[in-house]
Amino acid sequence: MKKLNQYPVTEYNKFPQNYYFLSIVKEIINIASLDKSEKIILDYGCGKKIFSKYLPNKKILNYDINPLFSEIKNYKNHNFDLVIFNHVLMYLTPQRINKLLTEIKKKNPKCEIILSLSRQNLISKIAMILSFNFKAHEKTKSSYSEQIEQLNNKTKIIRKKLGIFGITDIFYCKFK
Predict the structure, then answer these.
(1) 169 and 117 in contact (C-beta within 8 Å)?
(2) pTM for the predicted model, two decimal places
C-alpha cells in the first residue's frame, strides 16, 4: 500500500506559492474555456480540489491517489470528457504515463487532456529557494522531456501556453 504522503500536495493559500499556482489554475481554465464548458471534468490528482472551487457550477470528478482528497475510488468507473493533470505527471514514471493515457483513450477516445508541466529548470530551482519550498520536485519520477515524449506519442497538441513565470507550460490536447 502506498503511503499517503508519498506525493506532495499543492498549498494554494501559502505565500508566495499561491501567486504561481493560482496563475496556473487560471491559465488551465482559460486555455480550454472551462468556465463555458459543459464537459464532465476528471481532475486527476485533485489534491485540495482547486478546480471545484474555481468552477463551482461544473461537473468535476475529483480523483487523487490519497483517499483523504479523492471523492471517487476509481476514475475508471466514471464517464468524463476532459482530464486535468495539474503538475501531476512528473510524479509518474514514463511507463505509467503511457499506461494512464492508453487507459483514458480506451475509455473515451474523444477525451481531451489539459496538463501543466513543470520545466524543472534553473528558474524552477531559484523559485523553490525564494519560496522556501526546498522539496518541490523531490519525488519526481519523470523529467519534462519524458513527459513531453509521452504526450507527443499519444496526443495532438491543440493549444499551448508556454513559460508561465518561466517555470510551467500548459498543453491542451486531444488523442491521435
Answers:
(1) yes
(2) 0.86
pLDDT at 1: 42
Residue 149 covered by a domain: yes
Contacts of 171 (CB under 8 A, 6+ apart): 113, 114, 115, 117, 151, 157, 159, 160
- Domain residues for 51? 17-90+100-175
Q: Do the bridges between strand 82-86 and strand 112-118 make them parallel or antiparallel, or are there none, so unpaired?
A: parallel
User: Among the residues of 9-143, which ranges form H helices?
Assistant: 17-31, 50-54, 94-107, 122-130
Give the side-chain half-sphere CA count within 13 A for 5: 1
- How would you classify the pairing of strands 112-118 and 168-175? antiparallel
pLDDT digits (tens, 9 = 90+) for 101-160: 999 999 999 999 999 998 865 555 555 555 555 555 567 799 999 999 999 999 999 999
Residue 5 domain-assigned? no
CATH number of the structural domain spanning residue 117: 3.40.50.150
Residue 138 lies in a domain: yes
Q: How many domains does the chain have?
A: 1
Report if residue 158 sits inside a domain.
yes
Instruction: Locate the DSSP E strands across 20-87.
Output: 41-44, 60-63, 82-86
Distance CA 11, CA 49 (A): 11
